[in-house]
Amino acid sequence: MTIWFDIRRLSPAARFVVLLLTLFACSVAVAAEPKRVMLLHSFGRDFKPWSEYAKSIRAELDRQSPWRLDITDHSLVSARSSDEDPERPFVDYLHALFAKQPLDLIVSIGAPAAAFVQRHRPHLFTNTPMVFAVVEQRRVSHSTLTPNDAVVAVSNNFIAVMENILRVLPDTKSVTIVLGASPVEQFWKEAMATELEPLANRLQFSWTNHLSFDELLKRAAALPPHSAIFWGQMSVDAAGVVHEGAAPLTRLHAVANAPIFSFADVYFGSEIVGGPLLLTADSGRLTAAVAIRILGGEKPGDINTPPVQFGRPMFDWREMQRWGISESRLPPGSEIFFRDPPAWERYRLQISAICAVVLLQGVLISWLIYEHRRRNRAEVLARNSMSELTHMNRVATAGELSASIAHEVNQPLTGIVARAGAARRWLTAEKPDLEKVRAALTQIETAGHRASEVVANVKSLFQRDTQDRSEIDINSLIWTVLGLVDIDLRKEQISLKTELGEQLQPILGNRVQLQQVILNLVMNAIDAMRSVPDRVLTVTTLNERDGVHVSIADTGIGIEPSNLDQIFKPLFTTKEHGMGMGLSICRSVIESHNGRIWVSAGQERGSIFHLILPTDGGETR
């Protein structure tokens, strides 16, 4: 149901409120309408570098705009050639497309698109504001600019690009400049040739605008040493083939035998070395800012922006490594990208895990070493304690034995003395009592026999039982003894050398007795080397005509020549706390085996104990 009313019947205040509401509704409706923007490409949407600039401008417009934007893209295909006839149908198409819904702004990308709009502005875009974006400042025709035009230009400093090549590769002698055959590329061929004339005495320049792309690839693959390639633009080659996107530069990079440089960062990241470059983000951000100001109501002709210059030098680490470019040759303030991250960043978890495992292993190994050394110290202390106890036991035993000998021998000696005195008195009497003297002498004889028996009993304590004998491998017996003294050798830091003969004849003897002899001689050698710096124990065995010869040599303090004849006598010792019984017992054991034992001086110092044991149980000669 529709309700009609006459506004004239309302009071003045009510009519004012209705007017305000109407104006607000209209403003809301107008605000809801999107801003219509056209991006006009010079060659096509996929031609580098303009395609990347267009992406940056679109992204910045969406980010900076407070309004909804309706952005459309159109491409000026006619810029690929010098023939302007195909432009008429394109102009008619645009006129029909925007006749009823005019544009709020045109952003031309590249010089051909800007020139197209200027040529057809009277008929097509009479009052539409325009931003000339990504136009090199030499391509701007200031005389044809109108108050509806704003320019966001860029500045290509080709001298700086070539000087960068000479800085990072000072041996460079020639530069191949890649340019196509389109009108824009022909313009830049002439402009660059003029700009680079001051460097003609340092570099030889060659051009590719007269080559097909296949011919260009062949040339790039066969460049002479000390060459470089400058990638300018390749939209249309001399054969009329159109090249879009990143494919041309990628194919060139795959075959080129020289480093490639360029002027824009849109080519940076896989093919070019780097240097001072135009940054796409700078142009996109500045172009969008100018566009937003125009859409906001500012006059384009009042907006002046300086040309976008080269940014900080940037270099690709991978290309630097490929062409041997030292980091020290880069311009000051250069940034290096794509550098291989250090191993820590790439394998942080793995390295941490390995370090943890190694640390744990180190702790375990340290603990095991500590336990091993503690156990060795305990064994050494226990062995020392046992040695002290053994020594004390020997001393106590010797004391008891001495007391027993004194007691046993003292009785018959006392009797002998007493009866000898009595016999003397009886003989000096006036009338000698010969019977009593005879009886006393008989008693003296009996006491002497008893003393002899006591001495024989003591002697039997030091004699070895020679009844339990068997065949013995002397080398095996020696290794058994060396195993027993291993801790002592390590404790005293004594080096052991063994020269044990092979196929030794077996010895007939008592294993325990011979083992004790070898042990006694080895321990004596260890004691003799305690106070010398270089300690070496050498044990040698060999077959001889009359038996097996065993020698035990040390590098100790040696034996005085005057003591060599007494060393095997009972109770003779050169040790501070020795009892003088060890070597005497050794001689008794060896002689009970029909063998021989003697000592000689070492070659340089120390002493050598020799013993010969018969192999058939007979006597040695």
Keywords:
single chain, 621 residues, alpha/beta, Rossmann fold, Four Helix Bundle (Hemerythrin (Met), subunit A), five-stranded mixed β-sheet, 17 helices, 19 strands
Question: Helix and strand layout, with pairings?
Answer:
Blueprint lengths: L11 H21 L2 E7 L8 H15 L4 E7 L11 H12 L6 E5 L1 H14 L5 E7 L12 E6 L3 H11 L5 E6 L3 H13 L8 E4 L5 H9 L5 E7 L13 H9 L4 E3 L11 E2 L4 H16 L18 E3 H7 L11 E3 L5 H4 L1 H81 L5 H28 L8 E3 L1 H11 L1 H6 L3 E6 L6 E3 L1 H18 L7 E9 L2 E8 L27 H11 L3 E6 L5 E7 L8
Parallel strand pairs: 1-2, 1-3, 3-4, 4-5, 6-7, 6-8, 8-9, 11-12, 14-16
Antiparallel strand pairs: 10-11, 13-15, 16-17, 17-19, 18-19
Helix pairs in contact: 2-9, 7-8, 12-13, 14-16, 16-17
Question: Could you provide a short overview of the structure?
Answer:
The protein is α/β, with parallel strands linked by helices and 621 residues long. 46% of the residues lie in helices and 16% in strands.
Explained architecture:
The protein folds into four domains: 7-154, Response regulator (Rossmann fold), CATH 3.40.50; 158-277 and 310-337, Rossmann fold, CATH 3.40.50; 374-461, Four Helix Bundle (Hemerythrin (Met), subunit A) (Up-down Bundle), CATH 1.20.120; 470-613, Histidine kinase-like ATPase, C-terminal domain (Heat Shock Protein 90, 2-Layer Sandwich). 46% of the residues lie in helices and 16% in strands. The protein contains 17 helices and 19 strands. Strand 6 (174-179), helix 6 and strand 7 (204-207) form a beta-alpha-beta unit. Helix 7 (213-221) packs parallel to helix 8 (247-255) and helix 12 packs antiparallel against helix 13. The chain is rod-shaped, with a radius of gyration of 58 Å.
